[in-house]
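Thread title: Can someone regenerate the structure for this chain?

I was given the following input by a collaborator and told the matching structure tokens would be attached. They weren't. Posting the sequence so someone can regenerate them.
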Amino acid sequence: MREKKIKEKRALFGRRLGNGLQLVLVGALTGAFAGVIVTCYTLLAAMSEEFSRGYYGFFRDNPAFIPLLFLALALGSVVVGGIVRFFPYIRGSGIPQTEGSMRGLMRFSWYRSLTGMFVSSLLCIFLGMSAGSEGPSVFIGGSAGAGVAETLRTSAFIRRYQVTGGACAGLAVAFNAPLTGIVFAFEEGQKRFTPEVFVCSFTSVTVAVLIRNLLLAALGRPVGAFFSTFSFSQADMLAPVFYAYVLFAALIVSLVGIGFFFALFALKKLFSKIKFWKGIGKFLIPFLLAGAVGLIAAEDMGGGHVFIASLGSASEGVGSVFSAPLWASLIIIVLLKLLVTAFNMGAGVPCGAFIPMLAIGAGLGALMGLLLQKMGMPAGYADALIVICMAVFFTTVVRAPLTGVIMTVELTWNFAFLLPAVLGVAVGYLIGDVFRVKPVYERLLDEMLFEGGNEKVERFAARFCVEATSPVIGRKLSDILFPSDVRITRIERGEERFIPDGNSRLQAGDILTAEGELFAGSDAPDQLTEMLGEPLKE
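Best answer:
Regenerated them for you:
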């Protein structure tokens, strides 16, 4: 008996070691593929944004040619709308779809979706829209992970780890923020921590960022901090009075975030009623709006990198709009950025909203800094307040406080404002709870799943016997990525019957009862079969 137990433990150890090595290997391959693709994408996005700023400047200087700009925008809306109609999973930033794939709720053709998002989002940036590359980078990275999984013919069990690893690698490469990418996988992607997700994500992010830095160095491009125009003082950031300023600013910024959230979904509801030309016509409105805004305020073009950098004390500053003073120019820029970002997200234009939301938060932070300086705040606090307000706005809308804090720290390579940032983010998160704001990407995913009147059409219930070769043996239920629309409700182990919790470890021969309500097209039964074995016949 003792020898049998020793053999079982050795077999279990060998199986878990093999699974771990497999996750490291597939994570590295996923990171390599995602790193190359996303780096190329972000470079092309930066070039497209720079070029669009150039020709928009030409139209400002030569107003007689402006009709040509709007004609190009109208044609661009038709092209992008056609691509979206052909590849429906690329609508919006792509983050909700990626999260759906991470959780086993969605599955789509990786190469078609990757190509569609790559081309359409670049076209949006080229045409001068308020479009970031970070959201599409998450989608492209996740699609790359799915592509590696399909090429290697890995199981559905491993595929979800690869999609998660690719997605967070995409975000890490886009921002040059590896910790942000890893935390994003837990907090926003999977909504929980598991060792396997950490191993695969860590490996993918490490390899992807390494490849990104090597490629940029080879091209002679900088590989340092994302935003390097901000200056901080550790002593200033720890002053008690600064926390009072942060508290006031965070309250105002979070309320604006609440307004943005509800405006976004009001617009989404309105756009859903536009059926002109099979729905393609709704893209015309955000494209033409983006053109008008780009002619008024160049700072609102692109994702917002240039605008955020211009707010730092080490920069040349924000350009004036209509020859207005700084505070008035900032109000115009922020209001227009709020407007075009909400319209893009509401219409489902395939462009990122990640960095535009950070830009809105930064602009609001600059405005709060000007206001508080009139009330006696030292000017040296202004840079830190801007960065903290970025995290506050992001957290209020996205509901990912850890990602918000770590992201702003990594983007500036400075930990001086970490504690006040935590305070600001806590305020934003609390205000979101008060107004019952659901995470924006989660709500967008829910609406996608229920789109077109779809309901959870199938009640699912089945029993599975855990096979001796199953990768779930010896693992806690909380560490296993079962499909999100399925729950394990009972375990039968010999003569024992019990309702499991997250700490229940699975053994070979366990009979599991799985139940759930499946969305149309869900492959949850296939995933369970690959993880556990064939369902038992009643």
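The radius of gyration is 24 Å.
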